[in-house]
Structure formats: structure tokens, C-alpha cells
Amino acid sequence: MPKNASCQGAFFFAQFICIYKLVHLAEFTVLKIIRNLLLPIAFLALSGCASTFSAAYKMIQAVGTPNPNRFEQFEMNPNLQYLEAQTAGAQAMMVLGYTATPQEEPPVQTWYDSQRELLRLQNGFLVSVTGVNNAISSTEYTWGTPNNQAVRLPTSKTYSQPQQQIFNKTTPLSFQAMPETAISTKNSVLRKRLLSTAQPNRPALLWFQEIQKTDEQANTDIPYSLYAFAPNGSPVYGSQCLTATACIEWLYRTQPAAKP
After folding, report:
1. Is 0.85 topped by the overall pTM?
2. C-beta of residue 224 within 8 angstroms of C-beta of residue 209
3. Are 97 and 110 in contact, with CB atoms under 8 Å apart?
4. How far apart are CA 129 and CA 94, in angstroms?
């Protein structure tokens, strides 16, 4: 990552921490501890601008009883990009740390939390996640050309999931377009919010669901992943299950960076 990009990220991170400190001066003791731990990191980022974590990162974590709508009215800093993530019983607002652009592939975005856990997405598809059970440690996608709707979908992936004893497994991928009216909001906080708050004149999102392509996939109990894109092909929403009962979903709360 270029040094000036790191410095800019560090500046936004420090600015975000300061705003957070003022707004939440009377917050719970746990949040005070988290804030105090983050301040030295911000100063180090400003002085060095060379660390992997010098880019802006922050997760606002729920305290006490989980509330799936905790961040629905979250006031966002216009200088930062946000991603809301949900798992069973937990939710978080994450901030974009940095973006890498592999040659002839979609950008890879790295989203950080306050404990340096991260979520990596490539064109809205999960690359890796840490801090959860059965985490996917790495994914390499083979990308097709953009379809008639300007959406670029992968044709296969090679991934590792160590706790499931899966290492460098290659799986073909296939997707079918889904009408927005057919999208279920059952067991999904973010899909329910995304569809229930839609404006009457808003263009329908472009939805794609993974479909089985091999007998091995047909015999699995893991639900298929689901993705939504804006009419210009930018990712908006995604979900992927790590096991038959543990899934993760994410929603871009600010418009992703423009496509190259």
C-alpha cells in the first residue's frame, strides 16, 4: 500500500476515534476501555504511516443483549466507508482499511474491527474472515466477464477452511438471477432491512443465488450464498454460510469505491 495512502488512512482513523470519544463520553465502561486502547494505536499510525494497520479501522461492538437493529440509524463519517456485518447473536459496523486491485481482477477490500479482526471481500464475495468459528482463511476466485447487467461473477473458487479440514479445495461456482420479489427475508436481519426500507422509485437490485453444479454440492447441508448488486454492478449485499448452521452476511452502508 502506498505510503501516502497509509497516512491518509491513519488521519481518517485518528479523526474517527476523536469524534467517537466526544460523542460517547458517557458510554459503558467496556467501550471506554476499548476507546482508550485504540487511542495509542491511532497515534502510532500517525507517526509511522507504514504499519499494515495504519489504514483506518474500527468496529463498533454491541454491549449487553445483542440488538440486530443497533446500527440502523448509525451516524456515519462521510470520510469513511462502512460495512455492517451480522452473524447469529452478534453484529458490527466495520470501516474500510484499504483496497488492493489485483491485475485483471476486481478489487479486494479489507474491513477492520477494533481488535484487528478483519473481513476481506472481492467484488462483494467473501475472501477471508477472522474472529469466528470455522473461519475461511483464504479464497482465490476465477472471474468471468461482466454479464449483460454489468455484474462480474466468479466461475470457481479455491479456498481453505482449517477447522473443517479443508485446504486449497477448488469448487466450481454457478449463479442464477433472482427477482427481488422472490428474495426471502427469513433469518436475515440485513435483507429484511434492505428490502423493507426500499424507496418506491428505487431501481430493483440485481440478485444472484449460488446454485448446485456438482453432486458433491447437492449433498451438502450448507445453504447457498446470496448476493445483491446495484444497477451499475457495484456490490450491495452478500451472505455465505460457513457451516449448516453458522452464516455471515454483510451490507455496504456506503457506496463502494468506483470500479476501475
Report:
1. no
2. yes
3. yes
4. 13
